[in-house]
Amino acid sequence: MQIRLPDRHAADLRIAIKVATASVAAFVIATLLQLPQGYWSVISALIVVQASLGGTVAAAQERAVGTVVGSLVGGAAAFLHPHSLLGTSVTLTVTVAALAFAAAGRPMLRIAPITAAILLVATANQANTFETALERIIEVLIGCAIGVVTTLLVFPARVDRDLAREARAIAGDLAALLRGAPARRRDPDAAHVLLGAQDAIRRKLAALEKTVADARRAPGARAAAEARAALARTLWRVRNDAVAVERALAASDAARGLLGPAADAMILAAADMLAEIAVGRSVEETRSQMQARRADLDDAVAHLRDGAEEVDVGAAVPTMGLVFALRNLAGNLGDLADRLGEARAAAVDG
Questions:
Q1: Exposed, middle or buried by CB within 10 Å (0-12, 13-18, 19+), for 43?
Q2: Which of 58, 125, 182, 200 is in Cβ range 3.0-4.6 Å of 264 for a Cys bridge?
Q3: Distance separating alpha carbons of residues 166 and 162, to the nearest angstrom
Q4: Cα-Cα-Cα-Cα dihedral of 35, 39, 41, 43, to 10°?
């Protein structure tokens, strides 16, 4: 009997196996090389391993650069400072402050003050400070290298497939949001639930953007970087359009009344198209339905303009806001379907 884990649990299991493999490999290699403090290799491997190769490379670069700078500065400070409680305290204060200032706004140096402080305190009464610093650098670099190799070889990430999966999940959330929009109550409790759902989608979009940013750092990812970034931007636009639709509906009950059933029909057509996108089906039929509903909306707007002198200005403003949001939503949904098609093709090629 085959047990299939949900995508989230499967991803968690893969990263757990990667981390465990990297830590064991680092321990074995550090032991075989007889490194004096091989646990730094294990710690480094544990820290740098991420779900994606780009994320691991970025973490490894930050740890390697921070360790080299921190070890050299800390080793020099430990060698030159007066070996006394006062001398060590003053040197520690100055060294950590200088490196913390240098690391401000520079992620590559974030670990440098920590490395320097550990090295300075650990070698306060030793003469071989530079040897210790060199050993620390070697131990950390070995751990970083093992982390990168493990991420590359153990469950290698397929970025475009993962991005498409995350994007489809967000599309499903947006579909549910839009499907409930026409009948949604406009009271404080319903508004609180709506804001929570919108915030959850925003967090998922932020996570997708991080996946895109990590993928950009992976070797050889430059060619696909713009297509991946375009997918994230298009999803943000669709999300913003959905929020704009909700705001227009909440602004005035008359907005939908002036447009007749055309507005609700277009909202539901957009939800249907997003639902098809979410499950990876062809959207040609729902795209055609969306175009038909947009034509109905344009007819309703034209009819509204013909009787503009009878329309209350207070109702016309949110009505046109709703029309604008729905037209943008239709265009951006078409773009989203195209971007996901490109991501699907890239995943198959990869």
A1: middle
A2: 182
A3: 6
A4: -170
Strand stretches in 219-259, DSSP E:
none
| Residue closest to 171 by CA, chosen among 261, 286, 254, 62 | 286
Q: Is 155 left (phi over 0), alpha (psi -120 to 50) or beta?
A: left
Q: Domain 159-349: give its CATH architecture.
A: Up-down Bundle (1.20)
Cα 139 from Cα 115, distance rounded (Å): 13
Closest CA to 238 of 346, 138, 117, 334: 334
Phi first, then psi: what are they for 244, rounded to 5°?
Answer: -65, -40
Domain ranges of the chain: 10-153, 159-349
Q: Specify the 3-state DSSP secondary structure of 315.
A: helix
Token pair listed for 128: 């071989």
